[in-house]
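[recover] target loaded
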């Protein structure tokens, strides 16, 4: 290998290390507590029949988030700001309203999950929620973007514990393969859970977060390739985690078998990890839930703070100190506190998580519509969506959105 080639590879690796982060963080947050419980319910009710959907969602998830990478890299602006500048303040406020609804729903599931893990160890709900709020606010208000990113990745990596749970459930490969292709497409309850799984993968706050994080990190055109790899790796990891949870519950119970309710973290821990023993089971499953809940709470709250700043015009960067960007840190902190207070006063909100994911699916037309429109109008001409790839993106988006909305409305008895 020539000296110039060696230098080029080193430079590419150096750029990759510097760029990696926004995609992986947002994908780890994608497998939040609500997503974990949705995947678990999918395995309990339908065995492996929703497993193929987890695989099919990998390229769709990458396609969606890759558009946020392009927009962040080539415009240097966050999602809300770009909507405001391209389509006007009214549509920016509409997008922000959708983001706020999705963020609040997500925070209820994240905080419920964290509180549920605390209760497994006899920690009162109020104490665990207070500790979570103080920790998250402390991390975000006392560090730069890179520090917050490193902490988020470290928390998210605890989700890998779900692979241990899936392995120890001893799934049978023949049953897995047969179930994955045996799809009851005419079943209303199946379509409802399929819609919930789609909503658990493509969420409004993911789009806002990744584009704003790329803008905050000041990534540019030369970072595009590495940023795409960051997103691709994250898409694969998050869907493998979802698949692991589904496989664990399907292998443990199977469809239509006798099983306890799995509406709370405690019930899931007891049911899924009984073959590990109480101590190891709680530790492994609890680590996964804590990682999922904490990283998602950081990401969705930051997405709301960034989005609100981009729409209203207040300072919105982690590179500013709290005294320099008071509204940004206030929105972040207030969303965390409100989520914790509601969960503290209204227990067992984890049972609402599937409804939250279906709500995300119903928001897809708004979220993906803006994303494609910006990719056609706001990008530099050389990087805009056009030609065959534009047709593919629109087709995939329409089919995914239609399936999610139809399944959600039909499953809820509204269609």
């Amino acid at each position: 290998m020539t000296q110039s080639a060696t230098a080029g590879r080193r430079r590419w690796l150096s750029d990759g290390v510097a760029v990696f982060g926004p995609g992986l963080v947002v994908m780890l947050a994608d497998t939040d507590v609500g997503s974990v419980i949705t995947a678990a319910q999918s395995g309990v009710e339908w065995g492996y029949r929703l497993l193929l959907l987890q695989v099919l969602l990998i390229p769709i998830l990458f396609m969606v988030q890759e558009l946020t990478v392009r927009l962040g890299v080539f415009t240097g602006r966050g999602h809300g700001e770009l909507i405001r500048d391209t389509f006007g303040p009214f549509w920016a406020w509409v997008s922000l309203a959708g983001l706020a609804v999705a963020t609040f729903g997500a925070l209820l599931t994240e905080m419920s999950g964290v509180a549920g893990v605390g209760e497994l160890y006899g920690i009162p709900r109020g104490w665990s929620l207070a500790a979570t709020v103080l920790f998250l606010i402390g991390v975000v208000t006392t560090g730069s973007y890179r520090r917050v990113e490193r902490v988020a990745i470290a928390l998210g990596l605890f989700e890998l514990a779900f692979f241990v749970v899936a392995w120890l459930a001893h799934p049978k490969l023949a049953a897995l393969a047969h179930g994955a292709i045996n799809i009851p497409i005419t079943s209303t309850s199946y379509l409802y859970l399929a819609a919930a799984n789609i909503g658990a993968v493509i969420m409004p706050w993911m789009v806002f977060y990744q584009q704003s994080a790329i803008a905050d990190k000041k990534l540019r055109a030369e970072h595009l390739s590495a940023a795409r790899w960051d997103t691709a790796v994250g898409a694969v990891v998050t869907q493998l985690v979802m698949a692991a949870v589904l496989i664990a519950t399907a292998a443990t119970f199977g469809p239509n078998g006798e099983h306890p309710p799995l509406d709370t973290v405690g019930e899931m821990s007891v049911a899924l990890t009984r073959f590990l023993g109480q101590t190891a089971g709680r530790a492994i499953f609890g680590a996964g839930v804590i990682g999922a809940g904490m990283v998602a709470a950081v990401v969705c709250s930051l997405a709301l703070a960034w989005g609100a700043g981009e729409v209203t015009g207040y300072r919105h960067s982690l590179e500013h100190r709290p005294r320099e960007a008071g509204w940004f840190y206030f929105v972040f902190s207030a969303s965390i506190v409100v989520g914790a207070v509601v969960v503290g006063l209204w227990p067992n909100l984890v049972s609402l998580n599937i409804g939250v994911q279906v709500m995300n699916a119903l928001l897809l037309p708004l979220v993906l519509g803006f994303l494609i429109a910006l990719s056609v109008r706001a990008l530099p001409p050389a990087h805009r969506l056009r030609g065959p790839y534009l047709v593919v993106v629109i087709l995939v988006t329409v089919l995914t959105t239609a399936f999610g909305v139809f399944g959600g409305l039909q499953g809820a008895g509204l269609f």
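[recover] notes: The chain has a mean pLDDT of 81.
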